[in-house]
Structure formats: C-alpha cells, structure tokens
Amino acid sequence: MTQQIDQGTVDAEQWRALAQQLRVDSIRSSTGASSGHPTSSMSAAELMAVLLGKYLRYDFDAPGNPANDHLIFSKGHASPLLYSMYKAAGAITDGELMTYREFGSRLQGHPTPALPWVDVATGSLGQGLPIGVGVALAGKYLDKLPYRVWVLCGDSEMAEGSMWEAFQHASFYKLDNLIAVLDMNRLGQTRETMDGWHGDRYAARAEAFGWHAIQVNGHDPEEIDHAYAEALEQEGVPTLVVAQTKKGRGVSFLEDVDGMHGKPVKPDDEAKALEELGADNNLLVEVQKPDSGGETFTAGLTGELKLPTWELGDSEATRNAYGKALKAIGAAREDVVAMDGEVSNSTKSEEFAETYPDRYFEMFIAEQQMIAAAVGMSVRKRVPFASTFAAFLSRAYDFIRMAAISGANLRLSGSHAGVSIGEDGPSQMALEDLAMMRAVHGSTVLHPSDANQTAKLVAEMADTDGISFLRTLRPSTPVIYGPDEEFPIGGSKVVRSSNDDKVTVVAAGITVHNAIEACEQLRREGANVRLIDAYSVKPIDADTLRLAVRATGGRLVVAEDHWPEGGLGEAVLSALAGEGAEGLRFEHLAVKIMPGSGSPDELMDAAGINANHIAEAVRGLLNR
Amino acid sequence: MTQQIDQGTVDAEQWRALAQQLRVDSIRSSTGASSGHPTSSMSAAELMAVLLGKYLRYDFDAPGNPANDHLIFSKGHASPLLYSMYKAAGAITDGELMTYREFGSRLQGHPTPALPWVDVATGSLGQGLPIGVGVALAGKYLDKLPYRVWVLCGDSEMAEGSMWEAFQHASFYKLDNLIAVLDMNRLGQTRETMDGWHGDRYAARAEAFGWHAIQVNGHDPEEIDHAYAEALEQEGVPTLVVAQTKKGRGVSFLEDVDGMHGKPVKPDDEAKALEELGADNNLLVEVQKPDSGGETFTAGLTGELKLPTWELGDSEATRNAYGKALKAIGAAREDVVAMDGEVSNSTKSEEFAETYPDRYFEMFIAEQQMIAAAVGMSVRKRVPFASTFAAFLSRAYDFIRMAAISGANLRLSGSHAGVSIGEDGPSQMALEDLAMMRAVHGSTVLHPSDANQTAKLVAEMADTDGISFLRTLRPSTPVIYGPDEEFPIGGSKVVRSSNDDKVTVVAAGITVHNAIEACEQLRREGANVRLIDAYSVKPIDADTLRLAVRATGGRLVVAEDHWPEGGLGEAVLSALAGEGAEGLRFEHLAVKIMPGSGSPDELMDAAGINANHIAEAVRGLLNR
C-alpha cells in the first residue's frame, strides 16, 4: 500500500524504510535485466533516501523549472538507485522501472538524458563532479538562482584526476551551492580501492583543496541529515560528505563482499535478498518544488550582430578572427559564455574575457574541467564557447565523447593547428584533431582559411546544436574572401575554377593558401586547377566535390596539415565513395613524418604540404 | 674561461654562479631563436643548479646506463633551462645550444628524445610527473636499481588532474625514489595561478596524498640543498619540494612581471639582461656517474612461447583470448609487464595479474596515469601491455599522442568495442577508438574476430615497436580460424571467396561473424560474396582489398561496429584510393545513430550492421 513521505515531517524511521525500498527496487530492476550494479546502488541507499526524503527541491512535472536542484550520479553505474528514486518520487511507475536496460527503454544501463530528469550522461567515471562544477558555476554566477547541485560520487572514481580538477575549481570559484556525496564503500571492481575506508584521507584532501569536509556513517540517516544541513549552511566553500558505507549493504551475502561488483542478484537468490531487506511498502515521497520559480533563461539575440570584417588583401590569423567574432557575438547575445584553458592570449578568447568578464570563466590548465564546465553551461541553456590549443582538446576526448551522449551543445575552438605553428614543435601541434572531432556523434567540424570566413562560421556555431569544433591557425593568412560572402555549414568555396580544369585540389585552413600559390605556379605552366576550400569538414560539401572531380577527369589532390588518417582526405574520400569515385586518381598530401621545430615554411616543406608539393602532385596526376 | 664544478665540493657561491649561467644561456638561446620561454626557465635556475651541481648521478656519455638518474622536465616549455644544463654538463656545445628551435636541431621547442638524455617528450603539461611515476615504478619494483627520478614541475600544471593521479599512485606504490620539484613562480600564461605563492596549499595537498612535502625559497641554494638531502632520506614516501620562486628571476624588467610568459628577450634588451645577470663564466659541472653500473636490462625471449589455442567451432570472447595470450607471453618473456585501469576482470588482464603479480601494476581508475606508467616502463626497456575498456582509452588520448612523440613502445588493449557490448549502453561502448588510434603517428591498429587470431596478434604486438592497439569484443564469438593459421600485421584473411564473387564485403571483429551469416543467406540466393576479415586496420592489406574489389566489379560493402568516421570504412577507402578505386560502388554500414541499451543483437540491428543489413547492402549493390 502506498504511503506518503512528507519532506517536512520525515523521520529516521521513514528514511530507513525508504532506503530499504531503494535497495529492493535496485535489486528487482537489475535482476529483471540480468545485468547492472545493485551492490553499488545499495551502499548509497541511505545517502539518497535522506536527500530525496528531505533536501531535494525538484519539480518532477517540470524538469525544465530553472529553480530545480540538480542531482548528478557521477557514479553512473548506480543507475538502479537513481531510477528507484524516480519511482519513489512518483516520476516513473514500477512497470517502467522494470524495463531497466531493455531495448528502447529510457532507463538505460547508465543514466542518459533520455530521461528528462537526467542532466547529463554518466558512466565514464570522474565526469559527474566536474560537470556539477559547471552547473554550479552557472547557478552562482549566471542564473543567480538558489538551486543546489548534488553529486553522488563513488570512491573508485576518486582516482580519476578529473575529480581533483573539479575540487580545485569548485573551491577557486567558491561554489557553496555544490555538495559532493562520497559513497565510500571501499570496494572497486576487482579489489579494494587505494584508500579503502580511510575517510580521513579523502577529508584531508578535500580540505587541502579548500572544501568543507564532513565524515559520516553512510548508513545512519541522522548523521547524514546533520551533514546535509551543515553543507547547506556553508558560505563560499563547497562541501564533501565522506560517507563510510558497505557495498551490497543490507543483504548478508552481498554486504562488503568482494567480487560482487556489477553482478545482479541471481533470480534464485532474489527472494532471499528481498526478504532480508524486508521492505514491502510502496513509499512515495512528496518532493517539494523549489521555493523560487524563477524565469527560464531564454536569452537569444539581444542585440544586432555586428561581425568584424576584413578587407581583401588584409592579413589576419584565423585565431584572431575567432577572438574578434566571439566578442561580437557576446555583444549580440547574452546567452553566450566563454571559457579557456589558460591560453586565452593564444586562442584569442581574451577579447571576450576582457569585454565580458562576467560571462568568461578561466578554467586554467584543466581541459577536462573546461569541457565539463561547458557541458554544465549547456545544461543551464547557455551557449558555451570553450577554447584551447586544438592539440590539448585531446586531453578531454572522453568528456567530449560523453558530451555527445548527453546531447550537450558545445562550441569548441582549437587553435595552433598543424605544423604551421612552427618552432614550438610537435607537442603543441594538433595533427589528430580532425580525426578525433569527426568521430564524435553529430559533430560539426570547421576549418576556415581566412578571417571573414572564420567570423561567419563562429556566428553559425552559436546557432548550431550538438558539438561543433573550429580549428584555427597560429600564423596570419591573407584575407581571400570579401566581408559579404557567406559560408554555410556544409558548404565549400570554389576558389579557382575554369572551363578547362585538369585537376581538383581540395584544401582547408593553411593549405588553401599553399594551394593558391600552387595554382599560380601551375597556371603559368598552362595547367588549370579547380581549387576547393573545404572549410566545412563535417558535414562536407559532397555535391561540389563530386562535380569537381567529375569535371577534372577524376584527378584529385587533397592537402591537409594533419596526419593522413581520419582528416580531410578521408572525409573527401567518404563523400565521393558511392557514385562519385568512378576512375578516381588520388594524391593525398598530409603530414606523414613526425615534425620537429622549425619555421612554418620549413615544416610545411618537410611535411610535403606546401605549394611546391601540391603543384608537384598536380603535375603527377596530369600524366595519369 | 672554463671553470670546473666538482659535485663533491660544490658550495653555495658556485651554485649561484651556475644558476646565473643557466639564466644567461636560457636568454641567449631563446633570444637567438626569437621564441621560447626564458622567464619560466629563470625561475628554476637555482633548483636545477643545485641538482646538477651536487645531486644528479648521470653518465652523459652513456645515456643508456641503467643506473643513471632520470630527469624529466614536466614543465617542458622550460627547455632553454634543460639545454643550458646539458651545456653546463658538457653534453652539448655552446654552438649547439644556439641552434635552439632551428629546423633539424635536436634542441626542439619542447624536449623530445631527439636528444639522448631526454627520456620522453613533454610540452603538454601535467604529463612529466605521471611518466616519472612510471619510471620510478620500474626502478623500485623491476630494475631494483638505486636511481632517482627527478621531475621539475610547473605550478600552472598542478591544475591538471593527471598530476593528482600521479600523486596518488606514487604514494600508493611508496615511490621514495621519486622527487618532484615544484617551481612555484606564481605566474601562468595570462594571469596568476589559482594558488599563487600559497606553498602551504600545495604542501598540504601533497601530504594529504601521502607525500613528504618540504617548502623552500627556490632562490636559496642552501635551502634547496637541504631539501634535496632530506628528500633522499625518505623511506617509503615520495617527496615534493615546493619552491617559491620568481618568474624571470634575476633581470629587473622580467622578474615577477606578468605578461612575459613565453616571450624571449628582445635582441635590443639582451645585453642589458645579461649585464644584470653578470655571469661571464663558463662553468662546467663534472657530473658524477651513478655508483652502481648495473646491467642494461635486455631480457628477450626467456622461454618458449606457448600460445593458447582453440578448436574450430569453439566459442570464446576475443578479450578472453587476449588475457590467455598475455599470460602465455608473460611466461615466455620476462620483459613483458602489464597494467590495467581496475577493470582487469573485464579486459581479462587478470590472468596475467594473477600469474605474474610482480609484473602487474594496478593503475585503478586513472587511465592517464596508466598510459604514463606504460610510457615509463617503455623508457626502462620493458614491454608494457596496458588495458581498459577501449572507450576509456579516450581519457588518455593526449598521453597516447605524446607517447608517439616520445617514440615510446606501448601495447594497448581496449575491450568492449562497439554496440555489441549490449545492455551497459553508450558510455561503455567504444565507437571512436579506431579513428582515435589510427590518427596516432606510427600506430598499429588491430581488431581480431576470433580467439586464435587474437592470440597470434598479441604475440606480434610484443615484437612491434611504436604504439599498437588491440580492439577486443565483450561477447563470445565462434572460433573460425584453426590454431595454426598465421595473421601477420598488415595482412588480412579472405574468409569466403569463389571464382564468381559479385560483391566484396570487408569486416573486422564482430562484423566478420555478421558477414559470415550474411554470406550464408546470400549463397542460398545464388550470390557469391568475397568476405575479407581486415583484422589489421592499420597497416591495412591494400593489395588484397584491391584485388577483391577488382574481382567483384568494384562492388564493396564495409561493415563496422564504430562511427562512420575514421574507422575501418575510411581505412579501406584510403587503401583503395589511387588506382584501385576505378568504378567503386560502395556501401558503408557503420553506427550512425546514438545507441542505447539492449541486447547485442537488438543494438546491431538498430545500428544497421547485422547480417540482414549486410545481406541487404550486398543485394542493393548487385543491381548497381
């Protein structure tokens, strides 16, 4: 029989009963699915019972209510617990709970925003807390709403460095609206964690990073209650509740038993487990809606967009154009925010940072936290632009991958692409970024060659859902497009063409300029080339490519400042494959040797992607 | 005039003079190059003068001497300081120093093993310390030699989570042979660091992670001397020396001045700077060779390799075959070591871990530290195999990228590829790993479909230089190859062929089995298919592909459990591009929608990569 729990009058006995119910439902759902993590759910049952039973402020009928608290399961494998909470809150039925992990169910193996109350996908450990930092940043500095961000963390994931990036940034930004709850159940997947039940160690680390830390018995509702109350009282510091718990708590043959990670209770043992838990109530928590409704943040265009422009023949680095365009977009739209990995004078996000300091978040040298913060901003309906050297976005690839599963809307700008950066050497050169970013579900990958093109593309990114990536150049390049030209995503520019083109050259970024120089050489020799600037690497302009390749007898050169794999060359081949590849004669100029230091010209020569190499490749094809 | 410094009798005055010389040379080399980081070098001059002048044990004539200390500049941008040290040690001439950052010079913008005394490339921050942990692990547990690992860290990079992974692992493994020297110069690239000169914070964090911490004035040689002596006395704990320093120290217009990051002194100001530093000596440090020479570790095949075998028709997951093969290789070779991201019962490295616990290093849920440890093992001439879910290797992509620049020899095994994992959902599915790993310079990418093939490939990986990656499957698959078949890297297997093949199907891993099923369907319909198992995705067997596509009238289906970008499909297109693509009719079956949970069969059906979809694609091509 259904019993109501009122958040205002809840007592320890009700918390205990609710915790047992959460355990029962965690077992039932995972045994039903024949997979899942009941034991990792059971350890945190009291922690979540007290949260749901008293502290959480959430309007389950209106997940978009801007004043709702946020609850993120950083230990995403405890999804049975989360879904059991949703059932206890009346948000899903028992029937739906039992669809756990079925094909088509919203209740996936790890939480995803297929459920409207889930902000972000988790399941790759160490990501929920940094994303929580992003949501809390938005809450404190942008929304200025009193919602709290509650993050349930596992102890195994405390080994992930990204957690400590989150600790540092939460403290630096004084995020007293962030409460991390550490379910210290001691047991990882195959063995004890590095710190076992040494809660003092976690507490000392948190304090050394500037947090308030509270140690509790994670199975004692009253201790948990006091800890949460204390957390809410903190001013200017985030709180870590270190809760000593037992994995599989409440069932004799699961409790604190090694080797039970990720194993559902066998059907034959289910009745015994449920009997030990002894809960046959159907408790329903009347979760209070947030005090202050607030307005949903809906800022769109708040002023006229005046993009910067350059005159033909000017010279400007595309990274500079990014900076100036971002500033212009910041003037036109108050939902645009920016962040950078402490290289804003290189990526040029500094222009935005200086003009809109309230909407700029310095993320220091912590790329994972930077992407996580951008995801958090996306949760809060902002339009985040995050920038660093494109090479260093590789540091956050797992976060970018997961952001796609979250359906987050991120705009990433990666500067210092390729060997054209020159003397700094290979550690600073992005040579895998196109491959990495193309292989993100639903991504948009842009690589402009001049300043006007860059500015237009940055403006389009602001209106583009999903994850978009802009690859910018360190050196200045000539402005080759007038300020009124358009560069739709998915399009391309035919830079050179005639009625007598013999070879198609496809380039992007720096190689467009190398190819223009090659075209001049070749024209003097009487060979006309159709040159395509494929600034939109994904989606790519397959129609224009196909037309060009047909018009030039299948002769095709692709030149890119990137490793040969997964970049522009393969994007072009994929676009042509199918019908367009009839009789293709293809030369791929890409970086095939490990570069060192040197001038951009020396390095592009050594890599085989400069004007001479392009011209030579064209000449070679003329004879085929 | 050259003056010798004897490590046995060095005094504070000599250290000071040496520090000034290191500053002078840092300025001269970077001003000569018109780029580089003199100010970040100058802050650490005394720290490195005391180290070089007294503590470092290194045979510069024999960088391969196994007893040499290791010195890693985690703050790789301070390369002018490192190269100035090499000059002061007599390892390079002043002439070579002045080639800094020139094309072809060994003295690149950031350190790389182009210089024989540099273990690993740095320049992506936060990597030197975790790699130092790997070297120290090898020193303490494998080499059992008394060398020390000295790591110079910057304060900006303390924001990288990977640094804290290193702190945790160094303490867990009691690495008293590891000394981290923190050059706390307060200033980052664009602003003050999050912690400024609060050395107490860094010390408290290090202590909370189980380290010994010592705070010093980083410009006082005697304090530094005492700190290093104290560090060497520690037993069972690593030491962090927190040194308060000033960026640009010693030159009035550089010292502690913001906005001077990464800026060389202008030629016009050089004389003034050098005059302020006042060093016109040519000090040469007689660096002592290590006490104990030791033997270079050269273990190769130490026993006969007896790979596990399976019979045709058996069923086994390729991840299981990996585990059994790795154990067998461990028996045959004592240079093989393994590590895992605390999922060894999923990746199946547990078999090795149980049998060779002395050569297994549990890296817990810290993938960056895992790859860094593998790099450190490679520095120490071991043959490391590191494993986790392939999806989570994305967490360490920057480390893998940098490992390629280091020329490290790593073997990576990534399990749980693709949607075929089933119920756990997209967070656990590797769908970008082929793209990611192909776009690593010099990499080898393998994706076996059966157990015997897996075992042979694992054995080949042990003999393969560079970075090799094995992609394994979660579910069991039928054994389709006999135990005596060979699977050379760069090869492929023609699984089905006849004299009348109409379409070529290329598959790898799970899709080989789907394709076999499709072939059976199609054969019943009278359509013969040539099926190629492209287990070697990079390098790929272009000859066999070309032959097959020609024999089947250009009709080609590629089926892969991966996003469409950068994986098997594009690898095949790249291999065929050039001559082979005459009249290609291409269908690419890959994962184009975001998967959820479900059974492997349901998910492969939804993704369009199961037998029915392959058969349908073949039928479609038959009519083209």
Give an overview of the whole structure.
The structure is a homodimer of 624-residue chains. The first copy, chain A, contains 22 helices and 21 strands. In chain A, helix 20 (568-576) links the parallel strand 20 (555-559) and strand 21 (585-589). Helices cover 38% and strands 17% of the residues of chain A. Chain A has a 7-stranded mixed beta sheet with strand order 10-9-11-12-14-13-19, sandwiched between helices. The mean pLDDT of chain A is 96. By secondary structure, chain A is an alpha/beta fold. At the A-B interface, helix 7, helix 8, helix 12, helix 14 and helix 15 of A face helix 7, helix 8, helix 12, helix 14 and helix 15 of B.
List the helices and strands and how they pair.
2 copies of one chain form a homodimer.
Chain A: E1 2-6, H1 12-33, H2 38-42, H3 45-55, E2 70-73, H4 79-88, H5 94-97, H6 128-143, E3 149-154, H7 161-172, E4 178-184, H8 199-208, E5 212-217, H9 221-233, E6 239-244, H10 267-277, E7 282-286, E8 315-317, H11 318-332, E9 336-340, H12 344-347, H13 350-355, E10 360-362, H14 367-379, E11 383-389, H15 397-406, E12 410-415, H16 433-438, E13 444-446, H17 451-462, E14 467-471, E15 476-478, E16 493-496, E17 501-507, H18 510-524, E18 528-533, E19 536-538, H19 542-551, E20 555-559, H20 568-576, E21 585-589, H21 600-607, H22 611-622
Parallel strand pairs in A: 1-7, 2-3, 3-4, 4-6, 5-6, 9-10, 9-11, 11-12, 12-14, 13-14, 17-18, 17-20, 20-21
Antiparallel strand pairs in A: 8-15, 13-19, 16-18
Helix pairs in contact in A: 1-3, 1-4, 1-10, 3-9, 6-7, 6-14, 11-17, 14-15, 18-22
